[in-house]
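idk why but the lab printer keeps eating my pages so im just putting this in chat instead. protein + tryptophanyl-5'AMP:
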Amino acid sequence: MEEKKKVIFSGIQPSGNLTIGNYFGALKNWVKLQDKYDCYFCVVDLHAITVRQEPKDLRRRTLEVLAIYLAAGIDPEKNTIFIQSHVPTHCEAAWLLNCFTYVGELERMTQYKSKSKKYENGGSISAGLLNYPVLMAADILIYNADLVPVGKDQTQHVELTRDIAERFNNLYSPTFTMPEAYIPEDGAKIMDLQDPTKKMSKSSDNPNSYILIMDKPEDIKRKINRCVTDSIGKVKYNDDQPGVKNLINIMSAVTGMSHEEIEKKYEGKGYAEFKNDTAEALIGELKPIQDKVNAFLQDKKYLEDIYKKGAEKAYYVSSKVLRKMQKKIGFIPVSK
Ligand code: TYM
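predcted complex ->
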């Protein structure tokens, strides 16, 4: 008998244009996992509205993220690809799980602490920003996901998901699978090009600090050439040279070369050649993806077919788990 495949859930917010951090931290890894697992890849638009979005930009980016999934090599025949807001079970489960999550736990989340700092006096921080990890927990738990492939910055949220799941399971009876974060080796944390002690982020104010998946080759070259390194002048992988370390990680994530191989290749050479090669390698990886994204975006009907089919399957699967949750909590089932 064929063994049941383990389940994967992951998603990316359409809250800005995607960076190579999203690509190496998440997407590229997903592509590698799609044959072995039963995968749900979601465009998490409900997460994006925790901060204000221009409606027309949100619409455009949501489709673009979907096109990027496909262009990166996620096969719609093998995987369930969908848009979060099309599947109402996510919000329903999030409300239930909210009642099993403590405010203190949410206030301790590093991402919440850093994002909420941007709002003076705390007056205009939306409750959504605080509650967002509960929605993420719902995303994962209603598919009984075993693995969650994400970058390092999301591990704390997956830990919280496990805590919530365990609490619910202990209070009632086993309901949820315990999910585990799955972190890539090299792209786990791509750093900001201008301040390599910070994570590269699509919400940064300075466009020179990130590279977008859709950046033009000349922009990629310029950004890498200008990225902050150091005055040591040696291509070495260590914490005293965070800028160089970041470029080695990028090079390694693109080419599959080990850190040692890269160090050896550039021994006795300055940064210029190393930066140039890193930019060329990145362009070589991204250009075919960009061309495919543009082609997919021309075919809205094809995209619609994929996200409609994906939403149907996602709804079917997640409704079963949601009904289990409702029953255990004590809600009266809707009669058929
Ligand atoms: P988001 O949209 O911020 O990022 C999407 C994915 O990209 C990874 N990532 C990075 N990886 C390496 N280096 C970086 N600089 C970098 N920046 C981003 C993130 O770790 C993530 O894997 N809450 C999530 C989205 C989400 C989700 C989920 C993920 C919602 N529900 C359920 C997994 C499962 C988020 O905001 O990711």
